[in-house]
Amino acid sequence: MVKMPPTVTKAIFLLLLVNVAAARADGAGDPAAITSEGGKYLDKDGNPTFKIGPDGKVDYYSYAGFVRYSANCLACHGPDGLGSTYAPSLVDAMKRLSYGDFLATVAGGKRDVSTAQTLVMPGLAENKNVMCYIDAIYVYLRGRADDAIPRGRPSLHDDKPPAYAIAENECMG
Amino acid sequence: MRRFSTKLMLAAGVSLSAASFAGPAAAQEDLLKMQANSADWVMPTGTYDNHRYSALKQITADNVGKLQAAWTFSTGVLRGHEGAPLVIGDVMYVHAPFPNTVYALDLNHDGRILWKYEPKQDPNVIPVMCCDTVNRGVAYGDGKIILHQSDTTVVALDAKNGAVAWSAKDGDPGKGETGTSAPMIVKDKVYIGVSGGEFGVRSWLSAYSLKDGTLLWRAYSMGPDKEIMVDPEKTTQLGKPVGPDSSLKTWQGDQWKIGGGATWGWYSYDPQLNLIYYGSGNPSTWNPRQRPGDNKWSMTIWARDADTGMAKWVYQMTPHDEWDYDGINEMILADQQIGGQMRQTLVHFDRNGFGYTLDRATGELLVAAKYDPAVNWASKVDMDKSSPTYGRPMVVSQYSTDRNGEDVNTANVCPAALGTKDEQPAAYSPDTGLFYVPTNHVCMDYEPFRVSYTAGQPYVGATLSMYPPKGETNMGNFIAWDAKQGKIVWSDPEQFSVWSGALATAGGVVFYGTLEGYLKAVDAKTGKELYRFKTPSGIIGNVMTYQHGGKQYVAILSGVGGWAGIGLAAGLTDPHAGLGAVGGYAALNNYTALGGQLTVFALPN
Predict the structure, then answer these.
(1) Range of the domain at B146
(2) I want to staple B325 with a disulfide (CB 3.0 to 4.6 A). Which of B82, B351, B568, B589 is the partner?
(3) How far is A45 from chain B, CA to nearest CA, in Å?
(4) Domain count, chain A
(5) Residues in chain A closer than 8 A to B466 (CB atoms)
(6) pLDDT tens digits, residue range B98-145?
(7) In CATH, what number is assigned to the domain containing residue B81?
(8) What SS3 class is residue A16?
């Protein structure tokens, strides 16, 4: 198991529990950034969120999310989260998924079998290239779903926060 | 079972020659003879030389405009359909992507199903297949149909009734080792490649006994000399022996153990030279900073002895890859007049945008030229035999993702990682002496970064954005190429990448499919479009032709997907028009949807 920030581990644990009771996702809620923690912005519920400046400059998590999404998720979910011929659009999916649903799906994977198709997403809990950046990927996709982050590479972004670099090194080993 | 000693290899070679008077030789003669019969299409590549040319000429440049759909068949699978069916006598063999259904269809009754085979596979293999669950076709030999499943199981089916004759497991999907490539049968052997370059799989080519599925030898793309089946003294690159530890010396530490070099392309065979040819893919990871060295023998053209598997010569096209220019594309074997001399050539259209012409007996490099003018990552391939960089690409430093480093975005590199051409095979017409090449016309931004390796998990290490070359709107071209001179003769622009294998015919017509779903016929001499028909889904399959009941048919699988289904389903962005301005490059899903169908064409009676 990849060593993740304690908040993430806790959230996965809680959401795995919640999922049993409430199978329906309730979406991420209002994405407005209320607080920040070492360069990571949080909404009113304490979930990670994006922060876009008036000049279109994105927070570092959104930018890192674009980079890591494109390397680890794009091969199935398509560029900019738009889906492919064999995996759903995450721009759409994130309109329904809560932060916890997202973490649970990424960590545990998913299977959608019908007469027409067998869609399988692997559990990525062991994958450091994904799990060490899971909040960044979440923030990026949340921004895509809310139409706050356009297609393509964000042209301007904040510098890498020192806290981010420390957490990254700790997680990647 | 992963290591094979020289002793075992030699033993395999010896037992082959001892047994060559019996069944195996008969199988070889059969296939050599059968491939010359243009009424049939007996192997995935049409013929051993990979020409994808048919001597059939009922359909001509004059009458192809009257072509009609004769009958159609649904595979029941909605994923990317690569490859082409086989036709042997009155029976057509059609394959499908995962779950890898195989059908035998009765050509006497508009494709009535004679038998159907559907393997049971663990669906967990699906997400470890990079870029869709494609399969590039089945092979025929000695009365058997050989299927290479997604989970790397190789199974031999009785061509008459689909009964399983034998089965072998080539790899472990738990480590990211998967099967997408079409097998090739030469004499008594079945060659099987492996996919998994994006999962850090140290890849190989296996040879199985056609008779009973015994593994005879396995040659890796990187590692110790014995395991890569290279003789330091006798195996050459550009005329010189490769020397001891030619692969190990070009990797840092143990990195070769997760080195990539997948082998999922098409194979070709020269019966006179007794050599098989194929290409190895990209080194793992896509982050070049993380794997210093030339990373041999990734990105390499291999010529191996068809019996023993020993390498006769190698040529590494893209040492120390920095762009994912996977070298797996097909090797087309054609004899051509070059510099006033008849040469036994091998022609290869690499992902890196260079069209290579080599002497296939010796591996001498004769021509290396860009087959898309947009190619910019290298100025040229050094052709000066006295130069220390002879045979190497002259990398333009601005586009070197290694020089620019980790976490730096290298912009406007052409071609994109899809390559100027991917697996979609080109055709060669001995009538015109031209090669007909389906191409991608796409550039990219490439940002490498540090990644960590976990067995069975993606091991990519770079972020890419793709778009058409600056100032252009078409993302593909269908070109005619002169491999003697290294020049484009004509070029037909296509809105999307051309991801379908081409077919050349003696009727002076060349066929290919498009991602919107059109089957197109063009004049072999001029490229002028003569016919188009919109099939139910985008085409990433290869066009084939056969004759039945005295009539010529043309067949194509539709079913959009594959790598083309990733980038193009969403539409590519145009960074030059400002972020978000994608209107100029309408998404492919405005033209076509998922499908899985065979369409067979003929002239009206």
Answers:
(1) 6-602
(2) B351
(3) 30
(4) 1
(5) 79
(6) 999 999 999 999 999 999 999 999 988 988 886 789 999 999 999 999
(7) 2.140.10.10
(8) helix
